[in-house]
Amino acid sequence: MELNLSEALRYLGAPGEPDPALLAQLSAMSDKLTRSVTPRYIWRVFPLSFRGEGPTLEGAGLTLPGGMAARMLEECSQAVLLACTLGAGFEALLRAEQARNMARAAMLDACGSVWAEAGCDQAEGKISARFPELYRTDRFSPGYGDLPLALQKDICALLDASRRLGVQVTDSFLLNPSKTVTAVIGLSERPQPARIRGCGFCNLRENCQYRKGGKTCGA
Amino acid sequence: MELDFLYNGLVILDGAMGTVLQQRGLPPGGKPELLNFTNPGLLRSIYREYIEAGSQILCANTFGANALKLAGTGYTVDQVVSAAVAVAKEAAAGTDMKVSLDLGPLGELLEPLGTLSFERAYGYFKEVAVAGEKAGADLVSIETMTDLYEAKAALLAVKENTSLPVLVTMSFEQSGRTFTGCTIPSMARTLEGLGADAVGLNCSLGPDLLAPLLKELCENTRLPVIAKPNAGLPDPATGKYGMGPEEFVSALLPCLEAGVTIFGGCCGTSPDYIRALSKALEGKMPAPRTYRSTGFVCSAMTPCFLGEVRVIGERVNPTGKKRLQQALLEQDLDYVLDLAVQQEDAGADILDVNVGHPGVDEAVLLPQAVKKIQSTVALPLQLDSTNPAALEAALRVYNGKAAVNSVNGKRAVLDRILPIVKKYGASVVGLCLDENGIPQTAEGRVAIARRILDAALGYGIPAEDVWIDCLTLTVSAQQEQAAETLKAVRMVREELGLQVVLGVSNISFGLPNRAAVTRSFLTQALSAGLTLPILNPNQREIMDAVAAFRALSGEDAGCRDYIARFANAAPAQTAPAANPALTLEDAIARGLEGDAGRLAREALQNQDELSLVEQRLIPALDKVGADYEAGRAFLPQLLSAAQAAQAVFEAVKSSIAEKGGAPVKKGKFVIATVKGDIHDIGKNIVRTVIENYGYDAVDLGRDVPPEAVLDAVKAQDIKLVGLSALMTTTLPAMEDTIRLLHTLEHPPVIWVGGAVVTPDFAAQMGADYYARDARQSAEIARKVLGS
Questions:
Q1: Kind and range of the H or E element at B584?
Q2: Chain A hits for B728, Cβ within 8 Å
Q3: pLDDT digits over B649-701, tens only?
């Protein structure tokens, strides 16, 4: 697993050709992070049914509301719930870095976001190996499009994420530890197009310097 | 209570409840505690199966029966606990089965990871424990803990509010740590010290993977050890656990050989597994145990075994340090944390923490300092105070096994402090002095050491937790005492076998070139048997001497640490001398923290503090700020400059404190992440940048209720408040906070920012300003507070 530094630079609002000194520091933070923290993930497969309000995870009694989930999963027979976290270890590292140097802490924070996504990619690899005959949809998360943030509670309860990953969901639907991602992935017999593109599906959508400046990063 | 069987012979617990219920139709994610009301018959039938399978203790169905997890169910803790215990007791009627109250994690993360305080966690556990004893539970099982701090809150709550025996099990990953980084020795020795009756591991892994961890646990405790593994790991595709009963039991038997005596099952197990276990254990005897008896202190994450040299950092002590005295009077715990961080980086193993100073309420400040340091620094702490209330308050909130500095040979002192040391399972430093002062001979000091040891043993404190300070006297004043001290060190080590502490720096007081004398004395004392030198780890040459000693004594196998220490130092020695052309302004712009601090100290030789800030620091920051706005510099560069500016401010503050002058005060602002928001690096970035223009932050932290912001504004007459919100779900809390502040006759100026906040939201909510980033926030502060 590798940490994509250009992605981390994008998170820091410093795209394009970076200053060599900045890149060296970022690379050092990335090494420190990847040496000490390994993303952990759990996933579980549920059969899907399509009665009523939207795609429903059988045996879990959970219906995914909204147009996006319906569109994403329309050709799928099963859905995977996934949770991936950098855990409390990352939080401790981040607190330690904040007490020493805020610039390095900001870089570590950006690297952490990228590293958690890398963990999700690795989990997808495992899922794909387990179901070689099936095609996967893009993974999508509560808060993307019209998929409600409130689903964090249900997804984490179904995965037993508290016991198995040490992840908690707060009353305002924040995940703690902070570098935690939950996602839904559809499994289909038919090839699935890439549907996810643009700011609405970006993890930075709520804190993007480009969007705040009325621009996009073009990624 | 006839629970002697816990300590003699083998004991069989029950297996899983949650996963068995799921097999019988409870949907995943459901609340099993409600079945105590809706389907007690199902629970009773499962219990009966466990009884028939050979269980001797049943866990009541109360794993999640705390007020946090029951919120919204319509049931109180008392109702659920009494129903659950009653169901288990009904099933056990007519047998000699014991029923255990089951305490699982609260479902909210404790500080520093979450926002739940230790004291509130204690309160929730207390409520369940009291209800459990009232309902007739025979004992308590604290289970599936991954945070040692939460386990401690639960254990204290049970011990202080009930008379029930208590078993504690935690969940570990294959790495040998819990999710929060707790190690096996930290867990075992902390919980034993706090008075658990048995400790063990449950959940997370199958018996095959838990076996090596259980072996380590058996070596680190004298208590009976519990194993409650899962039935292997769950298959993500089906949710089924991988091990059948036979495989489970055969993987569990090596744990018996390692010394485990109490067995049960966790997720994925069932009455079939317990039946197979009972059969396999029939006629078996407990294996002999080998406890590793050793001096030990720890935080949750850092175990520290004693015997070899362990350096205790002495810097968090206000004696003779004006800057720290000022920080303590202002309750500036960030400064205390800085001192701790520096010593951790310098290689200290343990940190002494002393906040005693006239005008400081130690009973309030010491526990706060402990929490603050432990939020960031992983080293074990030595709590340094003579005030029993302060020590008790600090030991209570300490996460791990601490040391207490100190007692001495005076009976009254021993009787005041040792019961507290015992209750919290701490180690204790005994000073070799008594009512008659410091004995002038080594023999006299050793006699006091012996008395201290006897008193500790009398209170049930094991010898391994007693450390003796033979006392360093100043060689320039009492020259012959240096030899007596060294002799006492040797005698305490050889005759009593105890850990030896010495504050070594004191030896050289009043002499020129103190480091040479200190270093020489340190080396001699280490040779005589000193294991715990208290010193300033920031003095490189002193730490070099420790490194050299460890290489010569063989503690540093292959001289690896010694070589690494100087391999890293080599480039610094060959680096060119500081660039003479570098200006303070350049150092700030380029984020060169060390150079900026040095240049500031030089500049302060012929420039006053205020003009240094106004004429040089702030223009330099402005230039970086302008580059940032123009897109020529990015966030890391802005923050590096802020970091360098902080070094300049530290030089300014020290200079003023040394002169005894009034600190520079340019105005205070309150900053907070609103209620419901727990991630706060954005807020911390903003704070750092504003502080470097010389304004003082009153940082209320994260998840801050509106009332707390109002209180802070009123109490400190605050003119400017910054609020941060990260999620759409917490914007209403921001709005509530603004509304509440606007009820003041003279409301402060409010600026808002954070991930989801936009200029439009800000205006709608009635904020005075919106800030896109840290730079804009700093501009607002300057406009409102003046420069």
A1: helix B584-589
A2: 149, 206
A3: 889 988 888 888 777 778 999 999 999 998 888 899 999 999 888 899 999 99
Confidence band for B51, pLDDT divided at 50, 70 and 90? very high
Q: Given an 8 Å threshold on Cβ–Cβ distance, is A103 in contact with B642?
A: yes
Q: What residues make up the domain containing A117?
A: 27-212
In-domain check, residue A15: no
- Taking a C-beta distance cutoff of 8 angstroms, is the pair A99, A70 a contact? no
Q: Over the stretch B367-386, which tens digit does the pLDDT of each residue have?
A: 999 999 999 999 999 999 99
B236 with A173: Cβ contact below 8 A: no
CA of A76 to nearest chain B CA: how many angstroms apart? 16
For B424-442, the DSSP string reads: TT-EEEEES-BTTB--SSH
Contact yes or no for A201/A183 (Cβ under 8 A): no
Residue of chain A whose alpha carbon sits nearest to that of B646: A101
Query: Per the domain annotation, does A96 fall within a domain?
Result: yes
Amino acid at B254: P
Q: What confidence tier does B728 reach under pLDDT thresholds 50, 70, 90? A: confident
pLDDT reported for residue B755: 80
The yes-or-no verdict on residue A205 having pLDDT over 70 is no
The span from the CA of A129 to the CA of A172, in Å, is 35
Whether A106 and B337 lie within 8 Å, measured CB to CB: no
**Would you say residue A165 has pLDDT above 60?**
yes
What's the DSSP call for residue B494? Answer: I
The amino acid sitting at B337 is: L
Q: How many domains does chain A have?
A: 1
Interface contact flag, B591 A42, Cβ < 8 Å: no
Q: Tell me: cis bond preceding B112? Omega within 30 of 0 counts.
A: yes
**Confidence at B22, pLDDT banded by 50, 70, 90:** confident
Q: Residue B567's pLDDT is what?
A: 85
Over residues B122-166, the pLDDT tens digits come to: 999 999 999 999 999 999 999 999 999 999 999 999 999 999 999
Q: Which CATH number do you get for residue A63?
A: 3.40.109.40
Give me the total of CB pairs closer than 8 Å, taking one residue from chain A and one from chain B: 155
CB contact under 8 A, A61 and B773: no
| Best residue in A82, A170, A180 for a mutation probing chain B (most B CBs within 10 Å) | A170
Can you tell me which residue has the tokens 């503090």?
Answer: B609
Question: Which chain A residue shows the shortest CA-CA distance from B641?
Answer: A103
- Residue entry with tokens 């992440």: B673
Per the domain annotation, does A202 fall within a domain? yes
Q: Which residue is closest to B773 within chain A, CA to CA? A: A209
Distance CA B380, CA B399 (A): 9
pLDDT of residue B530: 98
Examine residue A89 and state whether it is found in any structural domain, yes or no: yes
**How many CA atoms within 13 Å lie on the side-chain side of B609?**
19
In order of their start, the domains of chain B are: 4-281 (3.20.20.330), 296-538 (3.20.20.20), 584-659 (1.10.1240.10), 668-785 (3.40.50.280)
C-alpha separations of B683 from A28, B169, B406, B680, B758 in Å: 24, 37, 40, 5, 16
Residue B684 tokens read as 């911390």
Provide mean pLDDT across the span A42-64: 92
State whether B681 and A105 contact (CB < 8 Å). Answer: yes
B376 closest CA partner among A106, A104, A99, A101: A99
